[in-house]
Design a protein that fits this description.
The protein is mainly beta and 629 residues long. The protein folds into 5 domains: 243 residues, no CATH class; 148 residues, Sandwich (Immunoglobulin-like); 32 residues, no CATH class; 52 residues, no CATH class; 100 residues, no CATH class. It contains 10 helices and 28 strands. The chain is flat, with a radius of gyration of 28 Å. It starts with 7 loop residues before the first helix and ends in an 8-residue tail after the last helix.
Length: 629
Amino acid sequence: MKQRSYNIVNRVFRIAIIGSTFSAGLAIAGPDIIVTNISGVNNYDSVGTGAARIDAFSIGTNVCNRGDAPAGWDGNTNDHAVIRQGMFRLLNGRFEQIGTSWCKHNFPAGNLSGACGVECVQPNLVSNELRSGCSDSNSSGINGDRVNTGPSSEINAFTGEFPNPPSHVTPQTTIDQRIQVHHADLDPAANNGATYFMQAHYVQPDDALAGAGENNLAYRPVAVAPNPADTFDAQIAGVVTYSDKPAIYAWKDADPLVVLVEARVPDEGLFLVAGKASNLGDGYWRYEYAIENVNSDRSMGIFTIPLPIGAIVRNIGFHDVDYHSGEPWRGNDWASTVETLSVSWRTEDFIVNSFANALRWSTLYNFRFEANVGPAPSSVALGLFKPGTPGKVEILSIGPALSFLDCNGNGVQDACDVSCAGCVSPCGGSADCDANGVPDECEPDCNGNGIADVCDLRDCAPRDSSCADCNGNGVPDGCDEDCDGDGVPDDCDASQDFDGDGVTNCSDLCPTTTPAGTCDLSPTVTCFVNGFCLYGATRDLCSSSKGSIVCGDLPCPGSSCPRCRGGCVIGDGDGDGDIDLRDLAQFSNCFSDSSGDSDVCLFHFDADSNGNVDSVDAQSIIPFMSGPQ
């Protein structure tokens, strides 16, 4: 192996620009590998049945060497790049990794020009190094080919070191060594509203030891849909690959309330810690954390969050990703512990099992719990798995406030408000009907009857509609929306869709005229919005996004069938249930006048949801117009 020296000055400079967009012409001292594009997805036949069924994918990648020195790409030595691929899901405020692959050992380099924004040195020369300013590309088929693959456990992502040749194992099934994802994690019926992302991660020894190993990740949105073979296909959905960013940024980009901070191991690798606190409305808050290990070889084995005295913790959870195809890392869930002043999770100690389920490089784990304490900045601790100094890294994230718990502001700690055990007077003055440690006056009481909603529902008398809960949402029916005032919450009133189009009267702008079945009756629809298709969206989300529901099983987009928006047929400007010459007159006004971009025009006639009424909309709507009915 060639001799290398670690360039700490260069590394500090590169850290300052991680997550930024590199400008054309920028060259960094030494090699600097950047993933510039995730170009496509290969889908493979699934394996297994029922809950054990697994789908497999691979992704195409393009990289650039934006530095001023070449990086090794030699397959005869351990001086080349390896590629690890992963899949992630954002669902109901939780961002989780649901799939990972083995490592593809990549060589030789194509040294293509024109893709990196800087001059390529000796372009189009297939070589055992990726030259300055040059790019290299692998199709999704190449990255899914199991030739030259090896386990991720052999890679030190911080130093870039690995054995050559890798410990290759001949695959036995179509899913081996590729991105493996449980069938249930992709099924729209179980993942309504989910969005999915692919991540590519390159590790290259020259790049890593020059201090450039933290910006070699990128992610891109993908859409997931079933195919006739009863597997799930993924395809590129977004127009942008987010270079220099691990996939965890997708959560932060989608939700500004997510707190994302770096946790750096001194003289070693990088973790990214994302956290969010959500008010549950019953006196409790949900704390959700996602931690991605970018390139720390020491890995993480313990995660600890401090608690205030008297905090009550419930619904503790943990999520990891499955290793496979003979990867020696274990998959046991981390054990959780609640103590007086902390909640923590941990895997086995390194000295007990060096292959324990630590949080390894290019991998994301989740930790969650609920507590009767609101959020505040909090010092959380990441305990490192492999021995060394320091033994842990502490960073400022979000967590339960460590201050006095007094939800009703009466100067008495909540625990003493509901019980005098261990307390001094005054104490015990508040009821606690559900024994959750929160005074009833601090819990939701939507009908103002002095009883916490949770206990109203528990003790509801038969035939008392005010405290029944027909839709099971935890809110007494008397507090639910009832747009027609018939005493039955809208969610439970089956008679609230007069025209049978799938949109309830309260939100249907054409409640009596839209032909039955025009708006898809399924819980989710395919929605064409902003020039692309959103699969598995709810009708409300499609409508609020000014999207068009694609009718039937026709492809998206490209169909000229009338679409439904807000309960009205696209093109039916007068809301009479059909598209006729009267609508043509309105369409012509919207098409030709400056009013064409008004909300009314866009709602009725912008069939492709591109923000204007144009010739594409004419092709979609006019074929359905006939004489006045």
